[in-house]
Amino acid sequence: MSRLVVVSNRVAPITEGEPAAGGLAVGVLDALRAEGGLWFGWSGEVSNDAEPMPNPGRDVGRITIRTIDLSRKDYDEFYRGFANGTLWPVLHYQMGLARFDWTEFAGYRRVNHLFACSLAPILRQDDLVWAHDYHLLGLAAALREAGSAQRMGLFLHTPFPEPGVLMTIPAHAELVRDMAAYDLIGFQTEPDRTAFADYIRRHAGGEDAGDGRLRAFGRAFRTGVYPIGVHVAEARAEAELPANRRQALRLRANLHGRGLILSVDRLDYAKGLRQRFLAFERFLIATPEMHGQVIFMQIAPPSRSDIQTYREIREELEGEAGRINGRFADVDWVPLRYLNRSFPRAALMPLYAEARVGLVTPLRDGMNLVAKEYVAAQDPEDPGVLVLSQFAGAARELEAALIVNPYDEAGIASALGQALAMSIEERRGRHAAMLDVLRANSLDAWRDRFVADLRG
Ligand code: GDG
Fold it and tell me: Fewer beta carbons below 10 Å: N end or C end of the chain?
C-alpha cells in the first residue's frame, strides 16, 4: 500500500507513547501511526543562516519526521507576513485586519518551493501527499514544478471565503491557480467548498463537472467536504480520569455552587473574544438576579504574539476584563476570570465537564474543535449546554446547540439566560442529538474518508 506523507506548516513535537496536543496533531498522528509514514514540516526554529540545511530525519515508532528551519526572512515574509498577516484574516472575513505586500506573497511562494525542494527528493513514486492548511496552498504546484507526479491532497482547516472576499487579496488569481495543482481539496463545510467552486466557475474560467469535480487551468481535480471531528469516547474518559481532575476539583470547590460559563480559545481576533466579553456584560446588566450566581471563565492561551494585531487584541481584552470586573464585582464575587495561559490537554476535559455552559462564539471558524470537545466531555446524565456561533463550521453539524450570532451581544446574553435555566430533560435531549453527530463524524471518519478519496 502507498505510504502516507503528511505535510504541515509545523510538525507537532511528539514523543513515543505520549498523546499529541491538538486536533490536527492527533488526527495526523493517528493516520501515521496506523500505517507508518512520513511527516514533513517546519521545525519551529528560525535560523541565522540565509539558506538553512534540512535537519536530519528522526524516527518515532513507525513515523519518520523530517523538518526544515526557516531563515529570518522566510519567517517574516511567509509566516508573519502573507500566511498570518494576509491569508488568515481574509479567510476569516476580517479584511480590515489584513495587509498585503507582493514581497510577502513572493516569500510565501518561496517557502512553499523550499518545502517542495526538500521533500521532492525523498518522495517515493507511489506516496500519497496530504498537505494541511492555509500555509501550503502552493505546495502541490511547487512539487509539480520539481517533477513530482504523486497524488496530492490539501485539507483546509480554515473557512474558504466567498469570491468577493477572497478577491480583496491582490494575488487571489495566483493563489487559486496554485491550489488547482492538487488532486483533491478538502473543506470543513459545504459552504466553504461551494465558495471555492464559485470562484473557479466565475473567476477562473473553469467548470464544475458535478460531484465535487472541477476543471480549470487545464487540470481536473476533486473537492470534497470532510468535517474534522474528535475522539468522542476518549474525551469523556479523560474528563472522568481522577488524575486529570485536580484543577477541576479546585475550581468546583471555589465555585460554591455558582454556575460556570466556560470559553477556551487561542487568543485570536477571529474567535470573537471581545464581542463575547461585551455580551457577558450585557447579560449581567439584564439579569441583576444572577449577580453572585454565575462566573464566566475565559481560558485564552497566547498565540502568534509577535504579530501586531495579536498584541493589540491581548491588550484590548485585558482592558475589557478589568473594566467589567471593576463594574460588577462584589466583595465575595468576581464575575469574569480571564486566564491568559494554556492548560495541559488532559486538564481541559474535566474543566469542560464542570461548565454549565460552553460559550463558543467565533466570528468565523473553519470548524472549532472546542465546541465538539465540550459536548464530548459532558456527563450524558447531567450535561451542560453549548452556545455556539452560527459562523463556526461546527454549527452545520451541532444544530442542537443554542445557535447565536457572535455580533449580537443581546442575542448571546439571552442565550446565556436560556442555557442557565434549561431543564435537565431538554439538556439531555440536545446533548444526545449532538453526541450522535459527533460519533458519526469522528476524527477517525475524517481521516479515513480523506485518505480514501485521495487514494481515489
Ligand atoms: C484550526 C481552525 C479547526 C485550546 N486551549 C488549549 C488547548 N486547546 C486546544 C483545544 C482544541 C484546539 O486547541 C483548538 O482547536 P480549534 O478548532 O478550536 O481552533 P484552531 O486552533 O483555530 O484550529 C479550526 C481546527 O484547526 C481543526 O481543523 O477546527 O476552525 O481554526 O483541540 O482543546 N490545548 C491545550 N491547552 C490549552 O490551553 N493543551
Answer: N
425 alpha carbon – ligand 1 mean position (Å): 30
Specify the 3-state DSSP secondary structure of 381. Answer: coil
132 and 255 in a single domain? The answer is no
Q: Which range, of 20-34, 62-76, 153-167, 413-427, averages the lowest pLDDT?
A: 20-34
Q: What pLDDT score does 350 carry? A: 98
> 237-286 pLDDT, tens per residue?
999 999 999 999 999 999 999 999 999 999 999 999 999 999 999 999 99
Q: Which of 157, 183, 265, 268 is catalytic?
A: 157
User: Is the Cβ atom of 389 under 6 angstroms away from ligand 1?
Assistant: no
Q: How far is the CA of 367 from the centre of ligand 1 (A)?
A: 10
Q: What is the pLDDT of residue 17?
A: 52
Question: Number of folded domains in the chain?
Answer: 2
Q: Do residue 47 and residue 179 come from a single domain?
A: yes
289 in the same domain as 201: no
0.70 cut: is pTM over it? yes
Question: Which residue has better confidence, 309 or 93?
Answer: 93
Together in a domain, 257 and 219: no
In terms of residue numbers, what domain contains 319? 232-440
CB-based contact 6:32 (threshold 8 Å):
yes
What is the best residue among 136, 231, 369, 447 to mutate for testing ligand 1's pocket, by most ligand atoms within 8 Å of CB?
369
CATH number, position 354: 3.40.50.2000
Q: Which has the closest alpha carbon to 152: 118, 114, 172, 178?
A: 178
CA dihedral 410, 414, 417, 423 (to 10 degrees): -160
pLDDT in tens, 416-443: 999 999 999 999 999 999 999 999 999 9
Beta-carbon-side half-sphere exposure of residue 12 (alpha carbons within 13 Å): 20
377 lines ligand 1 (CB under 6 A): no
Does 179 have pLDDT greater than 80?
A: yes
Is residue 158 located within the same domain as residue 282? no
The candidate with the shortest Cα–Cα distance to 181, out of 139, 212, 214, is 139
d(CA 389, CA 415): 11
Q: Is the pLDDT of residue 16 over 60?
A: no
365 is catalytic: yes
CB of 92 sitting under 6 A from ligand 1: no
CA-closest residue to ligand 1 atom 28:
157
Ligand 1 pocket mutation, candidates 313, 370, 372, 375, criterion most atoms within 8 A of CB: 370
Is 239 found in the same domain as 207?
no
> Measured in angstroms, how far is the CA atom of residue 171 from the centroid of ligand 1?
28
The Cα 193–Cα 450 span in angstroms is 14
The verdict on whether 408 is a catalytic residue reads: no
Is the beta carbon of 339 within 6 A of some atom in ligand 1? no
